[in-house]
């Protein structure tokens, strides 16, 4: 009797069976298959929101630069590197000019097109003009236009 009790106790302490482990792995796989596509879909929209926030920050820095210097910067680097002028009170950005969320440089044009003072453009995931969804261009005049409508 004592041997049977000891043997039963030992079996319980051995751990999980192979079938139990397979069932747990299958359940985890099913959960991952359901949740992962939703999470990866949010990555694209998060990158677009980040690019919009960066463009807004550039616009604020450019406008501050213009108030101090009486002109727009020739390139974005002037916002962080000291200009040989006593009116320069920068740096106007806390860090070096970042790449867009997809690893491409922002494009800065001064003067901008269609009578705008300047344009800042991120070409999206594909890095080329045009596109839809994650490949869509993010441009300063639309970012700022949407901000004015909300306010």
Number of helices: 3
Mind summarizing the main beta sheet? Answer: 3 strands, antiparallel
The CATH class: Alpha Beta
H-E order: HHEEEH
Total individual domains: 1
Q: What is the CATH superfamily classification?
A: Glycoprotein, Type 4 Pilin
The N- and C-terminal alpha carbons lie at a distance of: 82 Å
Q: Percent of residues in helical segments?
A: 40-55%
- The rough form would be described as elongated
What's the arrangement of strands in the largest beta sheet?
A: 1-2-3
Secondary-structure arrangement, i.e. CATH architecture? 2-Layer Sandwich
Would you give an account of this structure?
With 151 residues, the chain is mainly alpha-helical. It has a single domain (45-150), classed as Glycoprotein, Type 4 Pilin. It is built from 3 helices and 3 strands. It has helices spanning 2-13, 18-69, 140-150, and strands spanning 107-109, 119-122, 138-139. It has a 3-stranded antiparallel sheet. It is elongated and about 95 Å long. The N and C termini lie far apart (82 Å). Residues 146-151 have low confidence and may be disordered.
């Amino acid at each position: 009797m004592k041997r049977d009790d000891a043997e039963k106790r030992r079996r319980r302490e051995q751990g999980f069976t192979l079938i139990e482990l397979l069932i747990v792995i299958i359940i985890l796989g099913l959960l991952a298959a359901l949740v992962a596509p939703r999470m990866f879909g949010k990555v694209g929209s998060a990158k677009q929101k980040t690019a919009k926030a960066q463009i807004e920050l550039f616009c604020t820095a450019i406008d501050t630069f213009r108030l101090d210097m009486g002109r727009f910067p020739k390139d974005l680097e002037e916002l962080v590197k000291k200009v040989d002028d006593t009116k320069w009170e920068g740096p106007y950005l806390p860090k070096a000019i970042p790449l867009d969320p997809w690893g491409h440089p922002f494009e800065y044009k001064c003067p901008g097109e269609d009578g705008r003072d300047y344009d800042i453009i991120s070409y999206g995931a594909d890095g080329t003009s045009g596109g839809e969804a994650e490949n869509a261009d993010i441009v300063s005049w639309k970012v700022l236009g949407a901000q004015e409508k909300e306010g």
